[in-house]
Amino acid sequence: HTLQWVDPAYFILWVFLLCCLLSLLLGTAFGSVSTLGVIFMMLARSAGLDELATAGAIMSGIYVGDRCSPVSSSAALVCALTNTNIYANMRRMWTTSALPFALTCAGYLALSLSGPARLAAPDAAGQLDRFFILSGWTLLPAACIVVLSLFRADVKQAMLWSILSGGAVCLTVQGMEPGELFACLAFGYTPAPGAEILAGGGIRSMLQVAGIVLLSSSYSGIFDATDLLSGFGGLIRRLAERIGTFRAMTLASVPVSGISCNQTLATILTAQLCRPCYARRQDMAIPLENSAILIAALIPWSIAGSLPCATLGVTMACLPYALYLYLVPLANALRKDPGPDGPEPATSI
User: Fold this and answer.
1) Closest Cα to residue 296, out of 68, 74, 16?
2) Which of 84, 198, 218, 346 is 20 to 30 A removed from 5 (C-alpha atoms)?
3) What is the rounded average pLDDT of the residues 5-9?
4) pTM of the prediction?
5) Are 304 and 262 within 8 A, CB to CB?
6) Could you tell me which residues are beta bridge partners of residue 189?
């Protein structure tokens, strides 16, 4: 339905904005790029548009929600690391990214002006009508996320109600059998021929990601208990005294992201390394969101950057067009930074 809003004269801008919208609802960069992102790449290729610019706009959009959606796993990770509330963090994340967001929109507007005057959009709704019953009830799972988030309900409760309502829609509106639904939940959706773009999902698809998180957490515990990173923490604190805490964290997150190769471990290790620079652990939440969470996606061999590019069928040459991923760290690095606040008190948690 949102494809009907796309104005060909501002195609790249609309790619960014609609990917933002979907990623905020889903809370996942990978889920957004594998659905709406793929559709936009099909449109760009069919119209002869710049594939790299389109892919860069998609990358920017999917990480807006990955960074600050109430159901984002990376946002939940930062809350767990810093003992903060996700809704309080969301307000501060939007405040610190308002200018970069506006600049990103301006950049994609400028890139859009070289596009065609007309664009033949695929009849996505008509194609989906062959496989699903697209009544208003199918919006119920997304509505649960939006409404409960507005009332600041616990994220787990919002996700639970969204899942339950989605299951109810499957059983009643779509006419799925209970066994088919449980198989879909466990092993992912297997679509009919012609709807392959919707394949995937399920608990099984998350086993590898869960393993990465568990392994990353074990590394973190080992480093913390053995003080293997204490020397590096001291170096970063001295660097923070010279250039500021956020700039030091941003610089530290680049090699950490390159070594860890995934967003989860990069965030955990960056938090551990930079902890001596903050008097309170809670003060690290927004700096982490503005640095490690986004910078991990700019590392070509990291899962956060390589998987979306592979899904879109483009090379890493699209990363320079991912304006949002650069502008958020850059804009916050240019702000006044008072420097480190000192070591974290033992009673802060």
Assistant:
1) 74
2) 198
3) 80
4) 0.80
5) yes
6) 200
